[in-house]
Every structure is written in C-alpha cells, then in structure tokens.
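Hi team, as promised in this morning's meeting, here are the two structures we talked about. I've kept the exact order from the run log so nobody has to guess. The first one is mostly here for context; it's the second one we should focus on when we meet again. Sequence first, then the predicted structure tokens.
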Amino acid sequence: MLSSLTGSAAGTRARKLITHERVLLAIKTALAAAIAWWIALRVPGVAAQYPYYAPLGAVACMYPTVAGSARQGLQTLIGLTVGFALAFPIILIGDVSVVSVAIVVGVGVLAAGLPKLGAGRDWIPIASLFVLLVGGDSPEEYSFGYLIQMLVGVVVGLSVNMLVFPPLHLDGALRGLRNFRELLAQQLSDMAAALGESWPPEHEEWAERESSMSNLGQEVRSAVQLADSSRRGNPRRLRHKRDLSADYQRLQAMERIAFHVQDMTEVLAGVIWHTPESTPLPPALVDPLRDAIVRTAEALNAWDPDGPTMTHAEAAVERLMQEIASGAAAEQRIQATAALGMDLRRILLTVRAESTSPYEEVVPDSEQNQS
C-alpha cells in the first residue's frame, strides 16, 4: 500500500498530473495569445501601433485557476501603471542617458517592494525602462497604447481561462486527503510489525519516514488550498459542489494525527536503536502495545468514528493503559510505553471528534479528472 503513496509510483503519478495540467495551460495560453493578437490588430487609435503587447498581456495573466488569472492580470496592469507614472518625472528632467536609465530602473525596483503588488511588482521597472527607452518623443502615447493592448490581452486571457475547461482541482484535494490518511495508517502498521520482529528489527524504513509524512502533509494542504482557489470565479463550481470547509477540518485533524504518529515514530526508534537501556519496553507490555497500534491503524484507515474498528481500537488502547497502570508494570520503566499509549489515545480522540463530518470516499467524475 505504501508504495502507492511514496516513492517512484507516486512520483510518476505526480509527473503525469503536472504534465496534463501544464499541457492544458499551454494550449489555453497559446489560444489566448492568438486571439489577443487578432484583436490587437483591429484596435483603433494610438494603441494600433503596439499590437504585440496584447499577446504579452494574455500570457502574463494566465494562471492555473480563474481567480489566480484575475488577480495576476489586475496586478500586472497596476504594476504597469505605477511603472509608467514613475518614468515621467525622470523623462521631464532630461534626455535618455546612462544616469536616467540607472535612476528609472533603481526607482522602479524600489517601488516593486511595495506590499500587495504580487505579480505586478516585476512589471514596474520594466514599464519604466520601456517608456524611457522606447517611448521616444511621445511617451504618453506609448504608455497609453501599451496599457490598452495589455488590457486587451488580460481580458482575453481571463476569458479563455474561464470559458475553456476552467480547472477545478477538487479531485486532487480528495486524493491527497485519502493518501495522507493511508500513509499515517500504514506507518502505524509498520511500527506494530516492528514490535513483532526480533530486535533490532530487520525493516527500519518506517523509522526514516518522518520527512515523508511532513512533506505529504504540506502537499495535501497545498492541494486543499488550490481546490479552494480553483472554485472562485469558476462557472463549473455550480455543477460540482463540495464542502471544502469539511476538507479543511479533515486536513487539520490529520495534521494533528500526523504529529502524534511522528512522535510515536521518534519514541519507538529511540527505544529500539538509540536508548534501549534507559527507555526500554517491558516485555509484558509489548503484545498489548502492538495490538493497540494495529487496532488504531485499522480505525484510522476506516475513519468511521461510530464503526466497529473504532470501538475495538479504543478498547485495545484502554487495555494497554490499564496494563501500564497495573502492578505488573509498576516496577518497570514504562515511560516510553506510556508516551506511545497517550499518542494512540489522542489519535483516536481526534478521529472521534470528526464524528459530525465523517470522511467520505467520493470518486471524482470525469470532468474533475480533466482538471
């Protein structure tokens, strides 16, 4: 199971997804640039002298989400406007020279540090420099034509992105949540298997998986955020409704569980390889601990707070905690076992807290898969 979540298989799937999304974005960008160029050749007035800026505007605003395209296009236009405004005082002072070029670029870079400019910050020094060097004797006309054609490109780019297969990334968030849950459950299962082997265990991959869990958690959060962003301004959201607030709740629950699983990984690895003498596992507690971990993994994999797997897991953890507190373990060092038991209890409490919004397995439809 784990091989489907990490390693070469996951990498191959990710590359396929990235390639598909990149190809779709490339096709839409090419289409938007072509349409923008066709329109730009028919724009009247002074802007007709600068049709090449329309395809540039279309390219500048293209983004994997509709909301991102709108934001990036608006920020680009704001950045251009600021850049033009900064260039005019320098043009009025004197002609083009080494000094004026240095000043306009320097001021533009400083202005690019203003907050909330986003993608527009990169256009400020470029716009200032172009007005100075290309505007010639009519910087006002050049600036106006430049801005109009960029506006044409941005409008075309946003329209194409909104109307031609606007991407919805709901399935990516769903897959990420499911994979994260399965990885955490598999980690628990591997730790339980290690308890049943002769020590030190032959299989130690689980002890080096902390970074994988952290990385996957970050990727899943990004996937949920992308799904949320892709719904904004997207006409397809009316046909494909999903409660992303519930996804955020599940993600937060899994992040809390991941914290406890990582803590268990560190504690058990320390018991086995680093501090076996100072923090041993009492032999009488090994079997109850292994059973509790196995049952918790099953409950986590099922994610059914009211199901039998949850009931069995809670009973197994409580048996473990009773063994720890019993007189049989009172004379032994039980710190590590107690820490593991508390982590298991907190994992189950987190799953139990999700009883009002149980994890639902939803198969993405074909349209969502196209995104």
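And here is the second protein, the one for discussion:
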Amino acid sequence: MDPYTYPLPRLEDYDVSPKTGFLPESLPCERLPQKYDAWENAMTVLPALLLTKRIRSVVDRFQKLDVSDLNESQLRRAYTVLGFLGHAYIWGVDTPCNKLPKQIAEPWIEVSEKLRVPPVATYAGLCLWNWKEILPMNDDVDFLDNLQTINTFTGGIDEQWFYLVSVYFEYCAAPCITIGLDAIDAAREGNIKEVTEHLKDLAERIDFLGSVLMRMEEMCDPHVFYFRLRPYLAGWKNMESAGLPEGVYYGDETEPRILSGGSNAQSSSIQTLDLILNVNHHATGDSDNSKSNPFMAEMRKYMPGKHADFLEHLSKVNVIKDFVLSSKNSELTLAYDASVAMLKTFRDKHIRIVTRYIVIQAAKERERGSDGGQRTTLRAGLAKSKDNVLRGTGGTALLSFLKQCRDETGDSAAGNWGKRILSVKRTNTLMAETTAEQDDLPTKKPKV
C-alpha cells in the first residue's frame, strides 16, 4: 500500500477528539446505575477500606452483577471501578493475593473485552476515564485548574495530582494530533511551505508538553508517590519478588493472567508523536535496529481498542520524514529537526521525573534496608524484581528503556546539523541534573 495515497484516519472513527484528543469529549460517567451500588459504595470509601485492610472481606461479599446493560460511557466507568477494586484486592493487604473472586473477575473480563483493553488497571482507567470538573467549565479557568479525580486509592492530593497532570497532558496534546495529520496531508500534496509551518507549530506544542509534565512536581511528593501510591499501580508481571510469581487467577480460570500495571507508556499521545515524526524504537539493549521494540507494541494492547486502531492506521500514512528527506529543503529540514529536538527534550524531562520519583526513592529504600531499618511500607518491595533491576509498573527495565527511547528520538534527525546536535551526549546537562538531585540521595553511614 502507498502511504501517499492510503486514506488518512478520520478522528471520529477512532473515538479521538480534535478538542480533547484521546480523552472523551463529554465528561466521564461518575457513577453507575443503582444496580451497581455495592461497587460504587465500596469505591466511595476505598481509602478507608485499604487503611483498615477490610477491602477483601467487603469484595468477597459482593454478588456477581450482569454488565450487559451498560452503555459505552458506563462500560468505561465499570472498567475504572473494577480496576481500582481489583488492584486494591490484590495489593491492599500485607500479603498480595494471587486470585480474584469471580464476582469481580468475570464482569471485569466482560467489560474489558467490550472495550478491548485487558482486565487490569491501565492508563485509560486511571486517567482518561477518571476525571470530572470542579465547576462547569468556562474560558476564564485553565483546564487543569478545574479538574478533580473521581476516585483514588489513597484519598490524597498527591495521587489526585499524579492522575490529573496526565489528564491535562492528554488535553494539551490534542492539537498535536490534528497538526500532525494536517502536516501529513500537506506532505502528500507536496506543499513544502505548509508542512514547514505545521512542523514549527508542532515543535512549540511539544515544548509546552514538557512544561506540563514538569508540573508533576508542584503537588505530587516523590516519597508519597513511591511508597504510598505506586504499589497499587503495579500489575502482575515480573512481580515474583513481591509475592506473585505466576500472575493472578481470575475467578475460576485455571491459567493465571500475567499483565502489566498502569503506565504512562500506555498513552496514545506519546506514540502518536513518534509516528508523526517517524521515530523508530528498537528492542531495549538490542543493537539490531531491524527489531522493533516489543514493549511499545505490547503497550498498545493496553490502550482502548479504537485508540490502538488509530495508531495502526497512522503508521500506514506517516510520510513526513520521507517527504523531508526527499525535498532537501533547509527550512523544512530545520523545522522537522526542531520537532524531533523538542520530543527528545520531553523525554529528557521524563527521565528526570522518573529519577526523582522512582530511582532516588528506591535508593533510599535500599539504604534503609542496609541499615537494618524497617520498610517504609509493607508493600515497598513492589518496585523490585528478582533480577534486582528497577522496573516500571509496566514491567519493563525502567531507565535503560527510557534512555534508549530518548536516544532513538535524537537518531531520527534529518539534517546534518540536527544529527550532530541531537547525537551529542549532553554530559554537562546530565551532570547538572544529577547535581540538582544530590540533596535527595541517601548518604551512606561510614562503617565502624
């Protein structure tokens, strides 16, 4: 198939909005019908049930409910509710449980199949479908300033902010989707000037997304995130050291399911930017660039089905880099490389966030352990794996994956100048970032 003639994806066919991107354009359902009060009532007091470790006894008393009567918005709500309850059931007591009772497992599977997402807490359930307005929206209030979550595990501000920054990120990324499609359309028409202007616009938008990401630091404390929230986000993949060597059994199923937990790698917006700019990712640590990154492909399975379909369609028409290279226009090449540079800078900022919120906190936990101190939380071991590699909630080796994604972004530069600038290892920048974090690192006590 010819990417220059294959039809462009229509956003409305894939539940993508030109206004809100991969967020639903209408407000998410906040509560299921009365029939589902047992679920919703448990959600209302979920932080208290986790605090008192009563979550399993409450869920065990549920009756199995038929979910065949739910519409699309209600299915999303049910998926979110069952995701919170399911993860709370598995991780919410001192020892994790490797089996979900069928009264939540079976409806969770049914809802998931209809939405084409796996039965586990995903980015969609935690973020895309878990927000509401504080007051009716008006143009005088910034979108983020008028958001609140519908549900959380902990009931805390830090957890709310963690989800809401991601919601705001998706909202701000929405224009990138339409700009990218317009750029592809202009490229197919051979219009160098229009493609150049679209890429300049895209570069500025991606730059702003980096500032949105860094707002995480405003209201989400790294210690609270790592020791109080992150344990509940974990799935049941690579979790042997946390007590789930085989995954989780759903109801009466005889084979366990091994699933990754919620991860920002499940954001369709990030993969959209990669596709627009033809950024290719390869297997982590693999020098054979012919192999695509299996984790990125795996994460598409955790996206809402129609969103994954959109990415697949987009991959068939992403001609921008080819157009840039064949046009040999200096201004166009510079605009393209500027967009790539902004995407690489965004990934640098993501690594900084991961370093503060996960890497440094894990180092502090190891330091406490080496001192013979007690764990900060009984579930603090969830960040570790049997091979002592720090892993994300998605189950991948964390820093090596993120750094490779960043470096591969720089490798996509089209012009000689862009290749030279983006391929340079920014040692001074990394050293400055490391120095800025030194105060957060634990100091080893001298042996006596």
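Starting points for discussion:
The longest strand covers residues 131-133.
The radius of gyration is 22 Å.
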